[in-house]
Amino acid sequence: MRKLLFVGALLTMIAGCSNAPSHFIINTAPAISSNSPVVKNIAINVVDPRSRQAILRLTDAGKHSYLSSNIPTAELVKQGFGDHIRQQLAIGTNPNSSSALSITIDKMALKLDQSVVSYETQSLIVFNIAINNGTKILNKTFKRQGTSKGPLKADIAVLEREFSALLVQIYNDISNDSQVRSYLAM
User: Fold this and answer.
1) Which of 8, 73, 120, 154 has a CA-to-CA distance to 91 between 20 and 30 Å?
2) pTM (2 decimals)?
3) Helix 178-185 / helix 156-176 crossing angle, nearest 10 deg
4) Are strands 63-67 and 118-132 parallel, antiparallel or unpaired?
């Protein structure tokens, strides 16, 4: 009887560990002090017109499966980028501001090809931004991509961390761009 219980418990643990995750978790929120001064406010609008808003496409043995973020991608980018520019540029967000920054998510995907003995990933993020400062409009495209390879099975937590880092890099590209900075300063 003990052997049967032990085998049953072992099989339950193995089955629990082999279940695929249900969400792709992204964390790009910087540590912000509660008393960070805000020099200016802008309205941020994020649109995700992609037909499939999943972030991860997993191909394993010729079959495709998709994972989405635990929150909608438009909200994820709006919150993450808003936090980022507050910390980096001292710019807060206010939906009633006369200055507005719009981000259209053109591409935001991680493709994972899993084989029996290895994996390979390709990440691509493309954002089209438009900044309206009340007098002029700036349109610009920002792109980041990455690849990785490894033995055995891909660790989803590592892929989440790498994709989050890629998203922070594109936020840095936008906030460090001289044209973006000049339009936001007006």
Assistant:
1) 73
2) 0.81
3) 60
4) unpaired
